[in-house]
Amino acid sequence: xxxxxxxxxxxxxxxxxxxxxxxxxxxxxxxxxxxxxxxxxxxxxxxxxxxxxxxxxxxxxxxxxxxxxxxxxxxxxxxxxxxxxxxxxxxxxxxxxxxxxxxxxxxxxxxxxxxxxxxxxxxxxxxxxxxxxxxxxxxxxxxxxxxxxxxxxxxxxxxxxxxxxxxxxxxxxxxxxxxxxxxxxxxxxxxxxxxxxxxxxxxxxxxxxxxxxxxxxxxxxxxxxxxxxxxxxxxxxxxxxxxxxxxxxxxxxxxxxxxxxxxxxxxxxxxxxxxxxxxxxxxxxxxxxxxxxxxxxxxxx
Length: 301
Fold this sequence. Notes:
Number of domains: 2
Distance between the termini: 59 Å
Largest sheet: 5 strands, antiparallel
């Protein structure tokens, strides 16, 4: 197993890859895998950077969970700061077409994108949940990357950073649109995932006492279905209009309503049985979802 490398900056990335000095300290576009004496065939790393990578000319298929999909047009991967990623790069593919954008959070910190980038949840997806682009989509994004690269390599002026950030934001906005398209075009497969998710929650909440088991997290649900929690939640929101957390709370509230019909248990006892550490948290959630407190619900039934 390779050691985990932590990268803090664009300059450190270039130094590690033996690629010389970067043309800009906070953003770079790389077109080819660099050649150096260091062995780059497999890298496991974390970084403080955002990472977007488009790989062209992918042949074969894409493995996702237990399903396999053929896809030839290209794959776009997003990795956010702090995530662990491993890349295996066969020697014969080091010169394959494509691009990598790396940028530091400081580049966008004072911009509108700095305030909204957390909304692009695909930076938290697993790498096997990549975005598969059609040819027209790929060409459109390539043009935006070309513009960013031109700004990086020309003389900087007061417009340079704004233009780079605006084009980055456009890439992310269109990527969100393309992910929606990907969810919709794979609806038949996703129906199976939705059924598995419901079965998982039904089995979880069938337990008599959840005080030891606790309420399932979105990440735990995703792992049970062999995907990231972020991908699961976005998939559910696209297919049903509700996030994974909404689905979890839906099962929880239904379980709570049944328990409240039994007058022999207090609201606090029910809260603890459902896995809440504090009864007031249960009461707050119940009211937010039903419009009434647990006591009010009990009194009306």
